[in-house]
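chain below, 130 aa
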Amino acid sequence: MLDEKRVRLMTQMASYEETDGRKMIPVTTWFRSDYVGFNMVKSALSITIVYVLVVGTYIFCNVEKYIADFYKTDFMSLLRRFLSIYAVVTIAYLLVAFLLYTYRYNKARKSVRTYQRALSLLLTMYHMNE
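prediction:
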């Protein structure tokens, strides 16, 4: 005979596995520091690529100005300015990425803990009916 509570619990668990669990369960296979660190490296790489593209576009759009003022331009100060802007943008972006990925990891852990409690409850329901 089917136990209605057990069927309801299994249905809720299957629904979780198909929706949120699909994203949350793989996150919990990582250690927090590894998950956050790996995603921060990906973020740093992406912000570097975007920054190079933006600076390249800026230089490409103003190439006439730089060619006309080639001998007057202090390229070291220009490079320092681009690098300081890059440093500020990267630090700000990585701080936001750290907070975001830490939040996502903690949320996933909490969600999967609830799922694991439901698994334990289901197991005890099976043992009670034996």
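Residues 31-105 form one domain. The helical segments are 4-18, 21-27, 32-61, 63-68, 75-129.
thats it, cya
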